[in-house]
Amino acid sequence: MKSALELNQFDLESATKKQVADFVQALLEQVQKDAALLQSNQAEMQSLDEKIQALTYELAYLRRIRYGVKSETFSQLQVDLFAETWNEDVAAVEAELEQLAGQQPVVTAEKSKRTRAGRQPLPAHLPRIDFRHEPDSCQCGQCGRDLIKIREDVTEQLDVVPAVFTVHRHIRPQYACKNCETIMAAPIPAAVINGGMAAVGLLVWVLISKYVDHLPLYRLEQIAARQQVILSRSTLADWVGRLGVALQPLVDRLTWQLLQGDTLHADETPVAQLDPGRGKTKKAYLWAYRSNDLQPGPRIIVFDYRDGRGGVHCRQFLGAWRGHLMVDDYSGYKASFNAKKTEEPCLELGCWAHARRKFFDLHKANQSPMAKEALLRIGQLYAVEEEGKDLSCAARKQLRAEKSQPVLNDLHDWLTKIRARTANGGVSAKAMDYTLRRWASFIRYAKTGHLPIDNNVVENCIRPIALGKKNWLFAGSERAGQRAAAIQTLLGTAKLNGLNPEAWLKDTLEKLPTWPNSRIDELLPLTPAMIEKLK
Fold first, then answer.
1. Is residue 77 predicted with pLDDT exceeding 50?
2. What is the DSSP string of 74-97?
3. In 3-state terms, what secondary structure has residue 122?
């Protein structure tokens, strides 16, 4: 394009030169506008690409949650719910086919390929009831001679007696002295609920059904009614309320024992609470605090019911406790890690299961090679933990120093390089930022032999309650939520220590009315060896 000076070389009239110059200037301005528009379009396209990537990731994630195999989102309990339905349908179809085939067993192609290990023997501790089946005649049908027993063919079937209600009659004879005219009788046995009609077995059945099997009280009322036993919901509720108060000292003692450790897991789950003033429900939270399995001491889970999710609730529960706290990235915990300089602060432990989940979801969404590589590297960390799970703390510390720390160093360098080449705002950047931003908390465990790598143990304790609340829907009041948290603390701790919650609760309720407070540790849902160590 000719400039204005170059136009002077041509023999043009001044008007023509001006027109040509204006035209050239207009073209230059148009080119500049087009370049600016192109740059704007490129920025907009990049933004759209990031948005499309995020939506694609979200869509793939939701589809996997709805239709796919959910190894990261479904617990074994949830998988079992679907497996039960499938197994029931398969059995029903096979039964119908057998009926159509004249009661002949039908072997399908799939069934013929399946290898079975055989039926497992029934538990030896269960009582046996013998039913003898003798032949109609003890003489041989061929020659008429007497038959001789040579062996017994024994088959076993498992039976159950559903909730059987019985009546305990406490008979206290009264004796009189003719001489001094006094009357004597045995004292009334102490009970956890004085003057109540419920024996300990019935109280245990109510609490286990409500807090372990997650059956609302109205269902227990219906179960009793099938046997013509009238148990009103108000009566059942009265028992539950009184038992919650009676068991509270055990909960307080367990909480004290938990806070003696220097490493805790923490997590929370929402719970709907009835809000009578508005005729609706509001959101409350069940906080869970778990002991560290890698350290010696009892395994304890304590549930704390609060009306919100604010970090103040965590700080109120922990009080003056200081140590390592394993949590997710929820901001409510951050204040606990920012103590005053005069205090020893709580130290944050990052959960590698949460970090891994970010890359897992990303890989499931778009088969990201970066996410796959991250999963493989994190898998190496878990392989080291599996190798050292039965080692002492000192041996595990050495193992982590030799194997885990090199993997962590390489992982950090690799993530940093990949992140530098990744645009901001995308799901890949967010997955990497989650780990890099909290890197100091993620590597603390590898410098020791007693700190955990993730928060799975406390999530496993919360999961049954999260599933069970679909049955009871909401807590009737804040006090009801606190009572549920207290009883769940005792029953959950019993399960953690390999105890049968039902057997422990029955034994405890029988002893509790006359048990001295100075020996309360002996009633805690811990193993005898653990109780002995607490003395």
1. no
2. --HHHHHHHHHHHHHHHHHHHHHH
3. coil
The mean pLDDT of 514-535, rounded to a whole number, is 82
Q: Are 56 and 365 in contact (CB under 8 A)?
A: yes
Query: Residue ranges of the domains in the chain?
Result: 1-30, 244-350+455-534, 352-447
Between 506 and 181, where is the model more confident? 506
490-515 CB burial, b ≥16 within 10 A, e <16: bbbbbbbbebebbebbbebbbebeee
Distance CA 244, CA 488 (A): 10
Structure tokens at 66: 């709805």
Structure confidence by residue, pLDDT tens digits, 440-496: 999 999 999 999 999 999 988 888 777 766 666 566 677 778 888 899 999 999 999
Average pLDDT on 293-312 reads 87
Q: Report the b/e string of 424-460 with b at 16+ CB within 10 A.
A: eebbbeebbebbeebeebbbebbebbbbbbbbbbbbe
Nearest-Å Rg of the Cα atoms of the chain is: 35
- Indicate the pTM of the whole model: 0.73
Say which residues have a Cβ less than 8 Å from residue 129's Cβ, sequence separation at least 6.
159
Q: For residue 307, give the DSSP letter.
A: S
Residue 440 phi, psi (nearest 5): -60, -35
Q: What is the mean pLDDT of the chain?
A: 80
How many Å apart are CA 467 and CA 481, to the nearest integer?
16
Q: Which tokens go with 494?
A: 């019993």
